[in-house]
Design a protein that fits this description.
By secondary structure, the chain is α/β, with parallel strands linked by helices. It has one domain: Rossmann fold, CATH 3.40.50. The protein has seven helices and eleven strands. The structure holds adenosine-5'-triphosphate and magnesium ion. The site of magnesium ion has 2 residues, from helix 1. Magnesium ion (MG) binds next to helix 1.
């Protein structure tokens, strides 16, 4: 990212939120973006995840100039390059565990059988074999987060992007998720995790701070 700026209109005026943000993440890194409430973390995450556009600046994802990419093409970029993990899991309540996990692959045009086949290894890695027929409402928070991590992983994205992934979990389940992130990073996954919690951030290999919309390494 080079000199990213982003603001929101407040009446007639634009209120700056992200101020001249420049930073880069190498393949295989595990970075935490740490900052207090209101500092711009989610706004930044939405730009990293290609869910929102910047006002100015340059953003290259895997060498692709996102700032020059049309909105129509960003859907595919999101599907192929980003694995999203949210604080509130964002699972589809009427789908069972397997149906939730295969979603990104179905969106790529795979048949359900092909998608399911491709997910088996990840389901095993996350210890969800016994749960594949359960609905999200029948799972604990920690299990729900493991499902959302599985869903993020199955498409082999360039970045795993997590916004407060332990925010809704008790301490033990939160620790399990962080342990899993370390393991996934050691397996070669690039992780960008956003948090307001120093203890959580310290589990990453590098911490970047965001304060009032500015980044400080
Ligand atoms: N759609 C919007 N319109 C106007 N202002 C917004 C909008 N979204 C966010 N903001 C403002 O931008 C600032 C940064 O918000 P953001 O959600 O990025 O913070 P955050 O660091 O994620 O906070 P938290 O830790 O509470 O989630 C806040 O002052 C917020 O009020
Ligand atoms: Mg936020």
């Amino acid at each position: 990212m080079k000199s990213i700026n982003k603001g929101y209109m407040l009446g007639e005026q634009k209120l700056p939120i992200l101020k001249d943000i420049s930073f880069s993440v190498e393949r295989g890194e595990y970075v935490a973006i740490l900052g207090p409430s209101g500092s711009g973390k989610t706004t930044l995450m939405n730009i990293i995840g290609c869910m929102d556009v910047m006002d100015s600046g340059e953003y290259y994802l895997d060498g692709m100039p996102i700032h020059e990419t049309l909105e129509d093409d960003l859907t595919e970029v999101r599907n192929r390059k980003i694995g999203f993990i949210f604080q509130n899991y964002q699972l589809i309540p009427t789908y069972n565990v397997m149906q939730n996990i295969v979603m990104p692959l179905l969106m790529r045009g795979l048949t359900y059988e092909e998608a399911e086949q491709q997910c088996i290894e990840t389901v095993r890695l996350l210890g969800l074999e016994e749960r594949i027929a359960h609905k999200p409402s029948e799972l604990s928070g920690g299990q729900k987060q493991r499902v959302s991590i599985a869903r993020a992983l199955v498409g082999h994205p360039s970045i795993l992007l997590a916004d407060e992934p332990t925010g809704a979990l008790d301490q033990a389940s939160g620790k399990d998720v962080l342990k899993l992130f370390r393991q996934l990073n050691e397996m070669g996954n690039t992780i960008v995790m956003i948090t307001h919690d120093l203890n959580v951030a310290q589990s990453a290999k590098r911490i970047v701070r965001i304060v009032d919309g500015k980044l400080i390494e």
